[in-house]
């Protein structure tokens, strides 16, 4: 079984969440956007899965570093172009 197949179908100790399912929800987990029930399931999965723990630590570190970056306003010409594109797109009949 390849690593990709393993990530898709691997679960630990009868847990219902697979590594792939954890990877798909991890950003929401790190950002605190998931229900307590799903967070508990993620924590149970990570209790027995070192690769998922390492991936979660890396994602959290990346998110923390990105949050520390200063935000800059959009340049006026980019904002005008964006408004123009959005106006054209939103005015099209469905």
Please describe the topology of this protein.
Layout: H1 3-9, H2 19-30, H3 36-47, H4 50-68, H5 76-91
Short summary:
The chain is mainly α and 94 residues long. It has one domain (3-91). The protein contains 5 helices and no strands.
Description:
- The protein is mostly helical.
- It has one domain.
- It has 5 helices and no strands.
- Helix 2 packs across helix 3 and helix 2 packs parallel to helix 4.
- The protein is elongated and about 50 Å long.
- The termini are far apart.
- 9% of the residues are buried.
- The N terminus is likely disordered.
Helix content: over 70%
**Averaged pLDDT, please?**
83
Order of helices and strands: HHHHH
The number of distinct helices, counting runs of at least 4 residues, comes to 5
List key phrases describing it.
elongated, mainly alpha, 94 residues, single chain
């Amino acid at each position: 079984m390849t690593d990709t197949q393993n990530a898709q179908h691997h679960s630990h100790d009868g847990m219902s969440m697979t590594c792939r399912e954890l990877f798909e929800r991890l950003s929401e987990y790190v950002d605190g956007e998931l229900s307590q029930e799903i967070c508990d399931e993620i924590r149970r999965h990570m209790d027995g899965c070192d690769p998922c723990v390492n991936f979660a630590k890396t994602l959290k570190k990346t998110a923390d570093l990105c949050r520390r970056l200063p935000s800059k306003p959009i340049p006026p010409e980019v904002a005008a172009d964006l408004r123009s594109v959005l106006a054209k797109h939103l005015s099209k009949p469905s």
